[in-house]
């Protein structure tokens, strides 16, 4: 009797499954490639929109597949519950967010990755599909590697020459760090595949890709990505030892010798003085970026330390549930101001605006509390636990290499996330969740193959007559539905297809609106730079029609109206802007408008906040003086004295502060102290208008003293 071969990988694949696979391939191709050079310096908006759009489309195809098959088979894995919990905590955080609309706008980018995971695990089943998608990832990564090297040599598109980035190596990402945080994933996947590949041509292509991607990664000078990739190499080496033992080293003995020699040569290039590491060379630049002195004393690490410390203040205020998903950038200036008011922090650490924490774990804790962070760590632990179990069961070396590469890429991202924010970058998020999903697919397909082998062995005990009978029974069952039944079933399914399609179109349009608003806002910003204010207002108003919650557009319009001295109208726009952004100049703008409107109490509150938002003490001087004068007008002379003394602590020769302080003293009848300050004004700027006023006041004080002295006739 001939054995009947059962191969689950050869089942008929529905057109909807093919469409889902095409959507995933489109994701790994289009998201990293997408850019809009005449709109955005950093191409995040277009990449995020395409990411979210294609995830919605893939979900739509999945729903079509379910309707077509008339059944819903959900593939279960140990990762499902942690990922579902992560989705739930993201959605629930809207309830306690301190800016719900900010959180709602950030929600799609957080949910798209986990949803992509479920699309992959429930629709990608076969090795051929995994291989196709991985090949596309490696090809795109390799092409980016080559492009990065060309950029370093000055070969690039003319329309973005001189854009952001060290040596202009930024790929199609607009930022060198974003490019590096993308490269570490395909590069990490390529390394183990190179070791196990038996096909010489494929091995050569993998080597070219590794050299290209590795070269571009080096040229980005991004230390966090260096560390992430280096850690992943060590992790993957131990996994190879775990899975292959001594055989792995024996099979790649010659290759290890070559790699060891290459490492020795590279180290010697950095350590031993030679023409290649002279100042200005590539080697010297890398050495400078990775030196201990640069790591400890560089402005970059100091800035990160400041960010991490004021992020800790956020966490302290909302330790359990966080401030709400995506609200970090909304809260950052307030907590930075609080941090800089402590001790000498303002002089010790660089100032800036950080819309990201440069540490994924601290930001996750700040936004979603210890519960959100705990769920993410739980997810990571489940992932590696599941991956290592599957690795231990699989004996195929190529499958093992895929598993090791996928887990290694996750390690690279997680380590890089200590110093950067790769999980907030669309192109990296796509590959991150693809790597997580593929582990489950490989594990599930391995279980199915074992089941298939068991079924095949059982079929040996059945005779040919029973098989023939079963075959006839199966055929009879398959020809049950009549043409009329099929037609009626189609009519019943049609409303479902249409409903899903309409919902998908609605979601895609909803996601498109914020992107279009960003495009309009950028063009408005260019008009503002050219001082075409009326045109800028028109464009910003169009942006607000697309996205009524775009705080930047409200601020731009308010600022223009403030310049035109339409203070009442501009105040309304600033109040709307404050709901969705915390702009560093917004407190100062509020203060100016309230001063113009004569609302001095409100002006004083905003002046205090404006002072705390300043990047250095020098820029605080005029604000302290204005605050002191405002308190004088409010007859709060003691507070005025404190504010003006603070300005003099920064600059002892600040004339306006001395003059204002004299006024505060006079109103408190501290005549002697006032005379000292007035004399200081005359000494510092004898020809100034303030000095003239000071002389007049001093003369008046002297006359008042003479009048108050008793005359001879007054004596008894």
What does the model show?
It is a single chain. 76% of the residues lie in helices and 0% in strands. It has 716 residues and is mostly helical. Among the domains are: 260-297, no CATH class; 614-706, Tetratricopeptide repeat domain (Serine Threonine Protein Phosphatase 5, Tetratricopeptide repeat, Alpha Horseshoe), CATH 1.25.40.10. α20 runs parallel beside α22. The radius of gyration is 33 Å and the shape is elongated. Mean pLDDT is 84; it is low at 1-11, 162-167, 451-465 and 478-482.
In short:
The chain is an all-alpha fold. It contains 30 helices and no strands.
CATH class of the domain at 614-706: Mainly Alpha
- What CATH architecture label of the domain at 614-706 applies? Alpha Horseshoe
Helix residue percentage: over 70%
Number of strands: 0
| Strand percent estimate | under 5%
Overall radius of gyration: 33 Å
For the termini, the CA-CA separation is 145 Å
The overall pLDDT average reads 84
Sheet with most strands: none
The total of helices stands at 30
Low-confidence stretches: 1-11, 162-167, 451-465, 478-482
Looking at CATH, the homologous superfamily of the domain at 614-706 is Tetratricopeptide repeat domain
Name the overall outline.
Answer: elongated
Structural class: mainly alpha
In CATH terms, what is the fold-level topology of the domain at 614-706?
Serine Threonine Protein Phosphatase 5, Tetratricopeptide repeat
Could you spell the SSE succession in H and E letters? HHHHHHHHHHHHHHHHHHHHHHHHHHHHHH
């Amino acid at each position: 009797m001939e054995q009947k071969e059962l191969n689950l990988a050869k089942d008929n694949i529905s057109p909807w499954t093919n469409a889902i696979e095409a959507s995933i391939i489109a994701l790994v191709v289009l998201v990293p490639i997408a850019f809009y050079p005449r709109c955005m310096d950093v191409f995040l908006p277009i990449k995020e929109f395409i990411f979210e759009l294609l995830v919605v489309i893939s979900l739509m195809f999945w729903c079509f597949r379910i309707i077509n098959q008339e059944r819903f088979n959900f593939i279960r894995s140990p990762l499902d519950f942690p990922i579902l919990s992560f989705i739930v905590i993201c959605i629930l955080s809207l309830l306690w967010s301190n800016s719900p609309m900010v959180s709602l706008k950030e929600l799609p980018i957080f949910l798209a990755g986990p949803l992509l995971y479920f699309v992959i695990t429930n629709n990608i089943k076969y090795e051929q599909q995994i291989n196709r998608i991985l090949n596309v990832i490696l090809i795109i990564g390799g092409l980016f590697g080559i492009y990065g090297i060309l950029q370093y040599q000055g070969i690039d598109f003319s329309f973005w020459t001189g854009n952001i980035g060290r040596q202009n190596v930024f790929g199609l990402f607009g930022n060198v760090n974003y490019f590096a945080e993308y490269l570490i994933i395909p590069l990490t996947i390529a390394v183990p595949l190179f070791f196990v590949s038996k096909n010489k041509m494929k091995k050569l292509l993998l080597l070219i890709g590794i050299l290209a991607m590795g070269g571009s990664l080096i040229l980005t000078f991004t230390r966090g990505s260096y560390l992430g990739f280096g850690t992943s190499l060590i992790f993957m080496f131990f996994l190879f030892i775990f899975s292959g033992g001594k055989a792995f080293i024996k099979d790649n003995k010659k290759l290890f010798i070559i790699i060891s020699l290459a490492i020795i040569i590279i180290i010697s290039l950095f350590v031993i003085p030679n023409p290649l590491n002279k100042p200005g060379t590539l080697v010297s630049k890398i050495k400078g970026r990775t030196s201990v002195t640069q790591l400890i004393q560089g402005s970059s690490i100091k800035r990160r330390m400041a960010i991490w410390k004021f992020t800790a203040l956020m966490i302290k205020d909302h330790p359990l549930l966080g401030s709400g998903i995506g609200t970090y950038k909304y809260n950052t200036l307030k907590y930075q101001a609080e941090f800089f008011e402590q001790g000498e922090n303002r002089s010790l650490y660089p100032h800036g605006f950080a819309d990201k924490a440069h540490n994924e774990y601290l930001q996750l804790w700040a936004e979603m509390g210890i519960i959100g962070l705990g769920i993410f760590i739980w997810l990571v632990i489940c992932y590696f636990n599941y991956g290592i179990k599957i690795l231990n069961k699989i004996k195929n070396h190529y499958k093992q290499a895929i598993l090791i590469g996928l887990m290694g890429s996750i390690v690279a991202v997680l380590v890089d996330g200590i110093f950067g924010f790769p999980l907030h970058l669309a192109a990296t998020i796509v590959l991150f969740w693809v790597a997580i999903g593929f582990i489950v697919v490989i594990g599930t397909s391995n279980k199915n193959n074992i089941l298939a082998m068991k079924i095949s062995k059982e079929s040996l005990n059945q005779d040919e007559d029973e098989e023939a009978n079963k075959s006839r029974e199966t055929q009879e069952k398959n020809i049950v539905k009549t043409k009329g039944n099929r037609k009626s079933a189609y009519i019943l399914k049609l409303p479902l297809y249409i409903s899903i399609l309409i919902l998908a179109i609605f979601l895609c349009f909803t996601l498109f609106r914020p992107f279009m608003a960003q495009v309009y806002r950028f063009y408005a910003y260019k008009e503002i730079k050219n001082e075409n204010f009326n045109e800028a207002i028109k464009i910003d108003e169009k942006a607000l029609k697309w996205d009524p919650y775009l705080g930047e557009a409200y601020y731009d319009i308010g600022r223009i109206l403030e310049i035109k001295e339409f203070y009442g109208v501009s105040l309304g726009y600033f109040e709307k802007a404050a709901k969705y952004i915390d702009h560093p100049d917004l407190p100062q703008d509020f203060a100016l408008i309230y001063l113009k409107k004569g609302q001095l109490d409100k002006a004083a509150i905003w002046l205090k906040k404006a002072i705390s938002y300043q990047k250095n003490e020098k820029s605080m001087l005029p604000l302290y003086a204005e605050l002191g004068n405002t308190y004088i007008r409010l007859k709060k002379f003691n507070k005025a004295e404190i504010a003006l003394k603070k300005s003099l602590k920064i600059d002892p020769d600040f004339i306006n502060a001395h003059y204002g302080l004299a006024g505060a003293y006079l109103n408190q009848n501290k005549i002697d102290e006032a005379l000292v300050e007035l004399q200081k004004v005359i000494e510092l700027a004898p020809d100034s208008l303030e000095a003239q006023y000071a002389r007049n006041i001093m003369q008046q004080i002297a006359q008042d003293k003479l009048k108050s002295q008793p005359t001879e006739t007054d004596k008894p």
